[in-house]
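User: Could you write out the 3D structure of this protein bound to 1PR? I've included everything you need below.
Assistant: Certainly. Input first, then the structure.
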Amino acid sequence: MSSRRTIASNATKGGDNSVTLLDYGAGNIRSIKNAIKKLGYSINDVESPKDILSAQKLIFPGVGAFGQAMDILKKKGYLEPLREYVLEDKPFFGICIGMQVLFEGSEEDGGSEGLGIIPGVVGRFDSSQGLQVPHIGWNTLSQRRESRLLEVVGDKRVYFVHSYRAVPSTDNDDWVLATCNYGSDFIASVNSGNVYATQFHPEKSGLVGLDIIDSFLSSSSKGAGPHLQAGSETKGNTGLAKRVIACLDVRANDQGDLVVTKGDQYDVRESDEGSSGNVRNLGKPVELAQRYFDEGADEVTFLNITGFRDFPLGDLPMLEVLKQASENVFVPLTVGGGIRGFTDANGKHYSALEVAAEYFRSGADKVSIGGDAVMAAEEYIENGNSSNGNSCIEQISKVYGAQAVVISIDPKRVYVQSPNDTNHHTVKASKKGPNGEEYCWWQCTIKGGREGRDIDVVELATISEILGAGEILLNCIDNDGVGQGFDIELVQMVSDAVSIPVIASSGAGSPEHFTEVFEKTAASAGLAAGIFHREEVSIDQVKEHMIQHGIPSRV
Ligand code: 1PR
């Protein structure tokens, strides 16, 4: 099944070799820059309104929230030149918000006007019937008409991450190039003349995404066609794929080198050397991330596991890892560990938003928050279930969107005889506790499992969702590194409690474990570390097993 992916960089092009990029400063545009460079083009940044009108080819990679994008475009004086450029049918490629702003408006954040070029208003996915929102992951397209831009896609999947979407109607029918189905049909791509846009992220859609960008860029270059060889999807394997995520737990070892490590129940030191053994070294972060991209991982997650005790912005090696990884890894990158507000040695305070911004600028698509999310949820409970709007989750979600905020939960199982023995959310456990207890709940921890808190997983997950998180990364300290499978009861409990996607993590030891978690729970993704690092199981084997059992998977 394996469709090994190779990138053939197209360094020499006929015609103009440059592209103008409209970066309004809201988020991670490093990925699109890296993709353009990989394809052999140079980039001119828009620095003033006239740069838009003089562009030969313009890419607008919108990130964040619709209203904020429109406000910034307006403030910078870019709105009118952008409208004029598009109406003059000059080569344009909008991505995500860069597509949405072409419409009349959006309902996001109480409503904002758009450029009004395409009929229709962008609205939120309807989660009232249990649909997980944001729509995150790899989905198939339904192409409405032939186009050079999407002919390279065929039945392969592309990467979406959004809570708002435009829907096809008779009024915008002329524009619709492709739709995608998530709950119902929405517009995945539009085109008229030289103007193209996609709701999905080609810069995060692996090699097929690079093909799409190349199709746009090379359309005016003589003879330059698609030049990348991407894999093809298996027949009948359609719809939103369940994601397989490779996770790199990163920390400095005792020699000061940043290494990928892996613990058993969060203990990352060699056990045969006693409690003061060396930090296990399973490889270099950038190299491993590249390997997982080549092997078909749907996402790569970096967790800076000692981030809670370091100064996050002093952690330059981690930022450098992200910068380097994002040069060649064209699937979503999440980074966690140390995303919180802090005050440095000189008394200067940095907000969680400022810290996250630095990680986004360095190549992260999502940030994952651990300890600080627990603090935010505890504060929310203390304030009588209300928030002052200033938590780390709210700060980041407001600017970068819910889809950019992942909450990493580190729970431990606590057994009780009866649900009446605790105020926390319990389940009847499939296996009894050490003293014959029949029920359990999961206690949230901070500082890498070192400190237990009086809050359970359901409370933390549901409050995180209320505060604006877009995804839950659900670890499990008891199962971590054990290889006996995900904690199905835990994943089930949390994925039933929230309407945002849940990533099941900890304990995968075989492809069967992924299939099991997808068959028995509503998890959207399965994450593993040890089995991939030690090459015991390949990502292909996992996906092959999933497909054999009818679970949609990107291949
Ligand atoms: O609190 O915001 O600074 O974030 C710290 C982050 O570091 C959290 O996401 C927390 O989960 C993580 N972390 C802290 N200590 C450890 C440790 O292992 N000592 N790693 C740690 C968490 C869990 C997964 C792991 C899976 C899969 N590791 O990332 O990769 O359990 O493992 P497996 O497939 O081998 O079973 P903050």
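Residues 247, 249, 262-263, 266, 268, 303, 305, 307-308, 336-339, 368-372, 408, 410, 448, 475, 480-481, 505-508, 528-530 surround 1PR (CB under 6 Å).
User: Perfect, thank you.
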